[in-house]
Specification:
Layout: E1 2-7, H1 14-27, E2 32-37, H2 41-50, E3 53-56, H3 67-78, E4 82-86, H4 87-92, E5 100-105, E6 119-122, H5 125-133, E7 141-143, E8 170-174, H6 183-190, E9 197-201, H7 207-216, E10 223-225, H8 232-238, E11 241-244, H9 253-260, E12 265-268, H10 271-276, E13 284-286, H11 291-303, H12 305-322, H13 325-339, H14 345-351
Parallel strand pairs: 1-2, 1-4, 2-3, 4-5, 5-6, 6-7, 8-9, 8-11, 9-10, 11-12, 12-13
Helix pairs in contact: 6-11, 9-12
Length: 352
Amino acid sequence: MKIVQVMAGAAHGGAETFFMDLVRALHRTDLDQLVIIRPDETRIKILEQDGIKYKTLPFGGLLDFKTKGQMHKIINEYQPDIVQTFMGRASSYYTLGPWKHIGWFGGYYDLKRFKHCDAYVGVTFDIARNIRKQGAPDEMAHTIHTYADLDYDTPALKRSDYDTPEDAKVFCALARLHWKKGLDTLLDAFTAVPDAYLWIAGEGEDREKLEQQMNDLGLQDRVRFLGWQDDRAAVLKASDFCVFPSRYEPFGTVMVEAWAMKTPIIAAASQGPKEYMKHEQNGLLMEIDDTAALSEYMNRFLNDKELCERVIKGGQETFQERFTEDAVVEEYMKLYNALLTPVDTKNAAKAI
């Protein structure tokens, strides 16, 4: 089976990280894949190390009049069985061919950008419901979750590299530095958590603004900006707790990664966490932008060992049930095979 996987996302982001995790996992099956991405040194290095075929295109927006034709030419020369386009930008460049087309939804995207699809994949049950609400037939909208692709044997980040005492309690946040991620609320809340350090692992357009907020709040002695970290396991392993305060989060792979690494997590009740997190069972769930609750929950983790053990146990159970690599790869293979299995309309008619 030959698959083309197309991603036109940003340099950093959860969907982009999952895309790379997924194509590497599928490469370990008997699939023949071609990946089409924007030029990105880090991703290209990973693909080359794994021996995964790839092509790069600019995906340059409204004034890019070449990518669409170039992408169709690449796909047509490869002659795949299936083309899977990730998110709206990549899907908007798709053109018809004899292959099957899957549109991948990591959020609540407009169905109009996903033309000529034979199937849609939403990463949560609610996203799949939203796809159906926009007019997709029930049988075309599927839920396949993301998963945590982590190296459990990776060494933890060295606290000394980030001027953090070895005996300190550390909260970490792994996120793009963007308003949607609620990191300004996290900094406000952290002023009432005096006995800990905070690591913010990520990059983005709000870095300067967040650093200024840190200084204005007098937190510079206890808050560290780590930059973007590709090895999320190393960050989580070096941390005691994880905080995920997103205002908008269709799913949230960080939540799954924390469960996988047995790191107690606090999350805001945005779309994804609200659907999958059970308060005080596999994490602590706060209302969006509830600074007081976030401070309270961080202090509870610091002072309640039994609570931490309970949410770690619940998180592991949730992870093993739905979010392992094997489970997700199996679901994709089922979908691919189903799309390529001819429908016996004659016998189906007799059965009716």
